[in-house]
Design brief:
Blueprint lengths: L1 H4 L4 H9 L3 H14 L13 H18 L9 H13 L4 H16 L16 H4 L16 H10 L2 H13 L3 H4 L14 E4 L2 E3 L2 E3 L8 E4 L2 H11 L18 H15 L8 H13 L4 H8 L12 H4 L2 H11 L20 H4 L6
Antiparallel strand pairs: 1-4, 2-3
Helix pairs in contact: 3-4, 4-6, 8-9, 9-11, 9-13
Amino acid sequence: MIERDGINSTVEIAQAIDSATFRQQADWWIKAIEDGRVLHRRKRTKMKPATIEGYKCGVEWVTPHIGKIPLANIKNAAAKELVAKMKEAGLADKSIVSYFQVVQSVVASAVNDEGERIHPRKWDSHFIGLPVVNPKEQNRPTRTANEIEQIVSRAQGQGRVLLELLAGSGLRIGEVVAVKIGEHLSSDCSTVYVRQSMWHGKEQDPKSPAAVRDVDIPEKLASLLAEFIGNRKDGLLFCTATGKPLCPRNVLRDVLHPVLRELKQPQMGFHFLRRFRESVLQMSEARALLVDYWMGHENREMGTRYAKQLVEDVEWRKEWAEKIGLGFNLTSLQPEVGKPGQLLESRTQPAKAA
């Protein structure tokens, strides 16, 4: 029994003494991801900054609890204790699962010269007490058409146009703030060409290959965008008074959250507007293929790949975009010079002749 359990194994003891601590390995792992030495497991591509930021949050939370423990000693018992601490701290089930996945990845990242794991593990989720995430119980706030109209009608200037575009197109906030006039908009503003996204003021590729798409929007919203753009020929669709990219966090603070407080509604991120658009599309007669294409979902069925010619039929897409409509009523636009999204007055004046 002693031999079977490895209690007197010199190899086991040597690993426990010589292996790096969780903190040391986690620091190496994050740095390797940032440098591109550790890639996305399935796509084999460099991970997005937002993904790396999520991993860093997980490492920061678990490090005070297991940071000094050697990797060789982080097994099911240690994991069980860590999960218990997460539950005591009141973390959501999804957060507990995500943070534990970070622990698994850090332990698995220690490999030898042959690329084999130094500390292979057979994690027992039942023994560890890892919660089962129920998607139906996750916090995914949505709003009705009437509530959407109330929210956007109380926003002002460019903030209102931004919220209406999010609700009427299903675009992600990072995709919207990256839209450039003349590059990512059709001449009549009826189609948004999603070719990039924005993260902390820096341009990056969209979330996934499926996120690279052409999103058709109804005529009413297209007319509103054209009115909002006015005589501008280039630059970002939504920007600060100096033409710089908007910070989504600032828009939440200055536009959306004040409106939600005024309406006595709980604070939410921009994603509830994307969920609203999804619901409008799902209630329509549009084919699932077109809905997934507009929303930028990854193809779930192989058969949809053989219908690629459908989403390339621009006239057909626009016809369906008009049939579906927005699902809510637009309000008239009254832009003011100097407001967010409108350039400073000095930059809008024509140049004087010498």
